[in-house]
Design brief:
This protein is of the alpha/beta class. The strands form 4 sheets. The protein has a 6-stranded mixed β-sheet with strand order 10-11-9-12-13-14, sandwiched between helices. The chain has a 5-stranded mixed β-sheet with strand order 3-1-8-5-6. Residues 340-352 have low confidence and may be disordered. The chain has helices at residues 56-59, 169-176, 228-232, 248-262, 264-268, 283-294, 313-338, 353-357, 377-384, 391-403, 406-412; strands at 3-11, 44-49, 63-65, 85-90, 93-97, 100-104, 111-115, 146-154, 159-162, 194-200, 203-209, 236-242, 271-276, 301-304, 346-347, 360-365, 370-375, 420-423, 426-429. The protein binds guanosine-5'-triphosphate and magnesium ion. Guanosine-5'-triphosphate is lined by residues 163, 165-171, 183-185, 187-190, 211-212, 276-277, 279, 306-308.
């Protein structure tokens, strides 16, 4: 109920290809290379927004794709970058890749690149050298990052309802919000938490209704304290007490005791108190009950309401909203001082430099042939950007392998000029045949 999940395929845009082109100048037979670079592929960016509280949209929107970058063109014109895809996710969303958390959205407006667009390939203008005056080589654009993202939303409710069984928690939720929880005249009607959104003035409150608590709940009595963890992350507690209770102060203290036994943090959470079911009671009696509570409730605000008669609901919601805004503002200040002030959009990087530069060789031998498989982030990246069907493209890759020391290691491992080398999905011989 409180953990919403969805799986989506995210795919950033492919980088544009670099161009092969030569300048045309009058009186010059063949001008220098002027093929422009391809544009970068569009990222897939997630942005946390308040006001969303479900991942349900993602169930029907299974693919999230960034736009590809455009190819480079002659006269050194670079391809345009592909447009990024911005996706709104609820605050509280955690994104996992292969079971590992790669992003945790905790604040409104927080943005992260979850899938990075592929780099554009270099055009041939880059590859001019003293020995290569007319390079016919350009790079292909790189594919964008793609993977299946597992989204998980742990709802950060604004308000948690606590109280004895039968206090009227679910009924309250049902009249102030869109939720339709089960309501009945017996204890432990609610067995799993319910959530609802209540609109108040120009804002809204996400309210969590949990099963009733009893004395000893923190030691496992009744339904125990398992559901208190849902309240643990809420900003404010609304403590509901049946106005018909003989000893409202005692009822209040019992629940407070259970909250404190669960965690200090929960005991310190801002609280609003309300007597429920007052529609049939004299004002005097209600005032007496409120006074009794005042004696034990410290400086918490105390209200009296009737869900059935829709009486006294707005002042309670307003008080809750005021408290919630205070808490959220304090949280935002704390978060800002914690991680300084970083500008721009952070990029999730799973590969640190070392991981990127590392490579390894695996020799696969069978009856038919021997293949040397080269694996490594950077070399595979270069291979993906190589036009294997051109002589120049392939030789450039061979140059890079030499520079990275891979060729040397291959020869040491027994590779010869005509040995088959495999990088990614492509195969070629170590030396041009
Ligand atoms: N007269 C009156 N009865 C109410 C009011 N609110 C709730 N009740 C009744 O109180 C009983 C318990 O209500 P629930 O909302 O199920 O109580 P709860 O606190 O969610 O109970 P648990 O889920 O068991 O913890 C039901 O019979 C409701 O109809 C009210 O404002 N006035
Ligand atoms: Mg209930």
């Amino acid at each position: 109920m409180f953990v919403d999940t969805a799986k989506v395929f995210v795919q950033a845009g492919r980088g544009g290809d670099g161009a092969v082109s030569f300048r045309h100048e009058i009186y010059v037979d063949k001008g220098g290379p002027d093929g422009g670079d391809g544009g970068k592929g569009g990222d897939v960016i997630f942005m946390a927004v308040e006001g969303l509280n479900t991942l349900i949209d993602f169930r029907y929107k299974a693919e999230l794709k960034g736009k590809p970058g455009q190819s480079g063109a002659k006269r050194d014109r670079h391809g345009k970058s592909g447009e990024a895809l911005r996706v709104k996710v609820p605050v509280g969303t955690v994104v996992k890749r292969d079971g590992e958390i790669i992003a945790d959205f905790t604040q409104d407006g927080q943005e992260l690149v979850v899938a990075r667009g592929g780099d554009g390939g270099f055009g041939n203008a880059h590859f001019k050298s003293s020995v290569r005056q007319a390079p016919r080589v350009a790079e292909k654009g790189e594919p964008g990052d793609e993977f299946e993202a597992e989204l998980e939303l742990k709802l950060l409710a604004d308000v948690g309802l606590v109280g004895f069984p039968n206090a009227g928690k679910s009924t309250f939720l049902s009249v102030v919000s869109n939720a339709r929880p089960e309501i009945a005249d017996y204890a432990f009607t609610t067995l799993t938490p319910n959530l609802g959104v209540a609109d108040i003035d120009d804002g809204s409150l996400l309210i969590a209704d949990i099963p009733g608590l009893i004395e000893g709940a923190s030691e496992g009595k009744g339904l125990g304290d398992t559901f208190l963890r849902h309240v643990e992350r809420t900003a404010v507690i609304l403590h509901l007490i049946d106005a018909y209770a003989d000893d409202v102060a005692g009822a209040y203290k019992t629940i407070r005791h259970e909250l404190a036994a669960y965690s200090d943090d929960l005991a310190r959470r801002p609280e609003v108190i309300a007597l429920t079911k007052i529609e049939g009671l004299d004002d005097e009696l209600v005032a007496m009950q409120v006074d009794a509570l005042r004696g034990v409730a410290g400086d918490a605000e105390i209200f009296a309401l009737s869900s059935q008669a829709h009486q006294g609901l707005i002042p309670v919601l307003r008080a809750l909203r005021t408290r919630v805004v205070e808490v959220r503002e304090a949280e935002a200040v704390a978060a800002n001082t914690e991680d300084g002030n970083e500008g721009g959009v952070a990029v999730i990087s799973l590969n640190d430099t070392q991981k990127a530069l590392a490579w390894k060789i695996q020799k696969i031998e069978n009856d038919e042939r021997t293949v040397f498989v080269v694996k490594g982030h950077k070399i595979e990246k270069f291979a993906r950007r190589t036009h294997f069907d051109t002589y120049e493209g392939l030789n450039r890759l061979r140059d890079i392998m030499k520079k990275m020391g891979i060729t040397h290691a291959l020869i040491r491992d027994g590779a010869e000029g005509d040995s088959i080398i495999r990088i990614g999905l492509d195969e070629f011989t170590l030396v041009e045949q």
